[in-house]
Amino acid sequence: MMRELVYYVAVTLDGFIAGPQGEYDGFLMEGDHMQAINRRFAATIPTDFAASLGLAQDTSMFDTVLMGWNTYAIGGLPSPYRHLRQIVFSRTHTAVGENLEVTVDDPVSVVRRLKQQEGSAIWLCGGGALAATLADEIDRLVLKRQPVLFGSGIPLFGDRPYRPQRFDLIETTSYESGVVFSEFARPSA
Fold first, then answer.
1. Helical residues (DSSP H) of 57-145, grouped into ranges
2. Interatomic CA distance for residues 43 and 46, integer angstroms
3. For the structural domain made of 5-185, what CATH number should be given?
4. Helix or strand or coil: residue 133?
């Protein structure tokens, strides 16, 4: 079975994954939805933060994370997800960190190679421009829709040209915090 590329990301009601300068402090970081993140998506929590919470992390769901440079740089850590293989796409920057690789390679080619390798799913962490580039490769979307409006910022799929693609709803879970997790899968061919 081929590995899946999963775009797992928080998004505002008006479709932004971050503010204009990469801000994410408007997202709800407390509430009953956090238990679901900690339980099911513990691998998506930065390594040091998960350790401070006493959360066990494994690679059964994700063993690789993909990020654009801006998403990587926002965290300010040299290796934020060192429990995973981290691949950062940049044509102009370099970085060194445990389990961290910065590449100038074409993201689509990288994802297609990764999908052919053994392993768990591949997590597309962000950002919007990278998601737009990889839209045709995304097998599953897990959107954490937050009950907030940003007004402007980084769109979920960057400046992707108009080209409708359908995804099938797999599951939706609503939380008292107002956050709604929706999982979608690309229809089978």
1. 69-75, 107-116, 128-133
2. 8
3. 3.40.430.10
4. helix
